[in-house]
Amino acid sequence: MKPIKNNPSPLPDPPITVWQTTSFGGSPTVYTRPLARLIEQLQHLPGVGPKTAQRLALHILKRPEDEVKALAMAIVEAKLQVGFCSVCFHLSAEPVCEICRAPNRDSSTICVVADSRDVIALEKTREYRGKYHVLGGLISPIDGIGPDQLHIHQLQRRVSQQKIEEVILAISPSVEGETTTLYVGHLLKPFTRVTRIAFGLPMGGDLEYADEVTLARALEGRRDLE
Amino acid sequence: MYLKTLHLRHFRNYQDQQVEFSAAKTILLGNNAQGKSNLLEAVELLSSLRSHRTSRDRDLIQDGEAVAQITGHLEKDMGAVDLSMTLRQNGRRTVALNSLNLRRQLDFLGTLNMVQFSSLDLDLVRGGPEQRRHWLDSLLVQLEPIYAYVLQQYNQILRQRNALLKAMLKVGSEISHDVSPSSSELALWDAQLAIAGSRVIRRRARVLQRLVPFAQSWHQAISGSTEQLEIRYAPNVALVEDEPEALQKAFLEKIQQRAIVEQHQGTTIVGPHRDEVEFTINNTPARQYGSQGQQRTLVLALKLAELKLIEDVIGEPPLLLLDDVLAELDLSRQNQLLDAIQDRFQTLITTTHLGSFDAQWINAAQILEVKTGHLLEQEIF
């Protein structure tokens, strides 16, 4: 007996109902298979647990079809098109990113960060008009990441071959961040002036509420009153 | 300070238990495995955020429950504080002071101070050096909570440096012993290890310096001034002068000296993770040669010194937790301990029977019977 051919969907799964135990509540919940699959996929996203995944999935099902398609396309296209800038390794859809191409930015200053997220954060300040260099992580032998796994050689080449006035190291003051800062600092010292961003009290923060670690840092990084 | 109430929910074998401590001394009486030590463990967690029995939070949560909660009402000279701690199966914790959730757990430390004394503490003298380091570190965290951060940084650097040494060991067996690209990377970890390690060493030296006179005078009192106790801090990197720069320099020099051994072993052998604290009685090392009685006297003297030092630094008497240890002390040591604490230190005592206690301990004490995770108030005449 042949099944009736009325569904041209490439997905072979029939819309049967599966019982699945979720991690919350302990009671079994009913999802049809495609929905279960969507929830499962959403749960892989950072910060999304079973509850949020279910909420997102049900929300997606309520939206009109073209909106959902647009979302799916956006995800796929972003993944396929966005790569790394060949100069600074910031996320970019072009071989060279917009910041590196911008003619009005100061190309004699490079700000070194660990991650593309840090570029975005720094850009939001609208304070910095130089170029960037994204290392793509921090030195961490535990994770098998040494200087060779990061974009450090490319940075060294940039600094040694171009006319760079200053390199600003903007890396978090964690144990790994500190080591990376020291490493990059030593490496670039022979070529140019190397500075690092200051750490200390948050703006609008009261001195008495600052913790000892931050306060100690802020004391270390004190400077003369102009 | 005085812990007025303690409330345990889904903690270990306690379903939902509220305890009110109504006397300076509380005796928790019960058979084994009823929950006496669990109660002390809850107090330990409120004090140090750690348990000496487990490092996994799910061990602390009652079977079949997702969340455990410990809350306590603590009366201090400066006013009352409500402490609360929530433990989850996945290991995430929330701590709150006066119902205000703290962003950093470090800020929770140092609120409730306590000295713990259990039968395991005899290992402080007999056991390996890591026991003594751990003892010193726990005391330091209570006196200077920032030390928890200092130590955590040091341990993280140590882990990273060990991982690098191990990786170099693997590569080294394939390539010649020339200057590999990793050696400049190693130098960075050396520098960081020296900075963080010096902080650890200086703080350990400082706390011992203050603790030793107390321990010596207690030891003299307990042993009837027949024996002379010496406590010597033997840091892995010798502390010649108490200057951060000088110590860091000595640290780096020692790393240089031991570099070949380190590269062969693939692990860090220089630093405060190899520190030792030496106890000697009449010039003989207590660890190998001390008699059982001498070792007990020594541990008791150390614990009394801890009480005194915390009281001195914090400005009010800490709690004393005696876990199954009182019955192990003979009557004269029991009395000495009692004399020392009087009613100034709130004391929680666990025991399986009251028989071996001096009557003075039982008088005026609150006695709680512990039975399968329930507490019953007992009247004893």
Please, could you describe this protein's structure?
The complex is a heterodimer of chains A (226) and B (381). Chain A is of the alpha/beta class. Chain A folds into 2 domains: 19-81, Orthogonal Bundle (Helicase, Ruva Protein, domain 3); 91-224, Dna Topoisomerase Vi A Subunit, Chain: A, domain 2. Chain A contains 8 helices and 8 strands. In chain A, 20% of the residues are buried. With 381 residues, chain B is an alpha/beta fold. In chain B, the strands form 3 sheets. Chain B has a 6-stranded antiparallel β-sheet, with helices on one face. The longest helix of chain B has 43 residues, at 181-223. The A-B interface holds A 139-142, 144, 146-148, 175-176, 178-179, 182-183, 186, 211-213 and B 104, 106-107, 146, 149, 153, 156-157, 159-161, 163-164, 167, 181-182, 184-185, 188-189, 191-192.
Write the layout of secondary structure elements.
The complex is a heterodimer of chains A (226) and B (381).
Chain A: E1 17-21, E2 28-32, H1 33-42, H2 50-62, H3 65-81, E3 83-84, E4 91-92, H4 98-101, E5 106-113, H5 116-125, E6 130-134, H6 152-161, E7 166-169, H7 175-188, E8 193-196, H8 212-220
Parallel strand pairs in A: 5-6, 5-7, 7-8
Antiparallel strand pairs in A: 1-2, 3-4
Helix pairs in contact in A: 1-2
Chain B: E1 2-11, E2 14-20, E3 25-29, H1 36-48, E4 67-76, E5 79-88, E6 93-97, E7 100-101, E8 114-118, H2 123-126, H3 129-143, H4 146-172, H5 181-223, E9 229-234, H6 244-257, H7 259-265, E10 276-281, E11 284-285, H8 286-289, H9 292-314, E12 319-323, H10 331-341, E13 347-351, H11 359-362, E14 366-371, E15 374-378
Parallel strand pairs in B: 3-13, 3-14, 8-12, 12-13
Antiparallel strand pairs in B: 1-2, 1-4, 4-5, 5-6, 6-7, 9-10, 10-11, 14-15
Helix pairs in contact in B: 3-5, 4-5, 4-7, 5-6, 5-9
